[in-house]
Amino acid sequence: MPELPEVETVRAGLAEVVAGAKVTKIKVHDARSLKRHPASSGDFVDTLTGRTIQAAVRRGKFLWLPLNRKKNEPQLALIGHLGMSGQMLLRTPGFTEDALTRVTIYLKASDGSKYELRFVDQRIFGSLAIDLMEPTADGFPGGYSGEDHSGESWVNMIPNQVAHISRDPLDPVFSVDEVLRLFKKKQSGIKRVLLDQGVLSGIGNIYADESLWLAKIHYDQPAASISKPKAKELLEHVRVVLANACEAGGTSFDEQYKNINGESGYFSISLNAYGLTGLPCKRCGRAIKRENWMNRGSHFCPSCQRLRR
DNA sequence: ATGGACACCTGTGGGC
DNA sequence: TGCCCACAGGTGTCCA
Asked: Residues A198-210: pLDDT tens digits?
C-alpha cells in the first residue's frame, strides 16, 4: 500500500493534468469504492459531473481535488485514499482496460485533451468520496499542492474527513517540537506512535521499519522512554527516508503500486529492513528478523535495534 | 489512555 | 493439479 511517497507521486502526476480539467462523465463499476462517500453513488455522480477541478492536494496519505464552487454552496472536494492497493491511473480514451478498475472519471483538460482517470483497487480498502471542506484549525494551507496557489479559496481549507489527520514531515508547517511533545506523553511502542496518523501522518509499515532501522531503535520501545535528541534524530531519519522515496517515485515491489502512468517506483532498491527477513543487516551482518505485530509484520535487526530497559 | 482483535476485501505464492 | 494457509504500503471501530 501506498504511504506518503507513493501518494505524493500520484498527486504530482495528477496535478499537471487535472488542474482546470472538467469532469464530463463518471462510471461507478463498484460502489464499494465509494464507502467514504456519505450518500449514494448516484449522488456522487450527480455532484461531481460538470465540475472543474482546481488542483491536487495531499496531506499524509490523503489526496483531494478541490472543486469549483457554486453560488451559495460550501467548498467541496473529491477526496481519495488508496488504502492498501489503490491506484489512480490517467489514461487516454481507448487505452487498454485496466483490471480491477472500480471507478472511471472522464476528464476534459483545459487544453481540450481528454483523459480517463481510473481508480483501480484490488482490495477495495481505498475509497473516493465528495467531502465538505472546512477552514484549517491553524489557518495555514491544508496540505501540499505543488505550485503556489495562495489566494485561492480552498487553500487554507481541509476536507472534513482529513481534519483529524496531523501534518506530515514534509509539510512546511510540520512541527518537530510538537511531535516530540506528543512522544513524551505516549507509553505505547514507538512504531505504533509513528503509525498513528493523529500524531504525524504519512508513515506506514515500510517507512516506519526503515526509519527505526536507521535510528537503531526497537519498534516496541516506549515512545516516552526515548531521549529528546534520539527522538529528534528519528524524526530526521523519517523526513529523509520519505523525501528520498518521493525522489525515487515511491517504493514498488509488486503490481500493487504504480504511478499515474502505471509505472513502478525505485525506492525498493534502497530498503534496509522492510521485507528483508533473513538477509544480513547492512550494518552488522546479523539476520533481519520479522515478527508478527499488530496483525502485520515488523522487520528489524535484533542486534542493532535492541529494546532498552 | 492503550493495547488488542477484528472488520473491511482480493489476489498471489508457497507448501503439501 | 488443487487446496489451504500466510501474507500484503491502511483505517476505523469496538471492547477489555
From this structure: 999 999 999 999 9
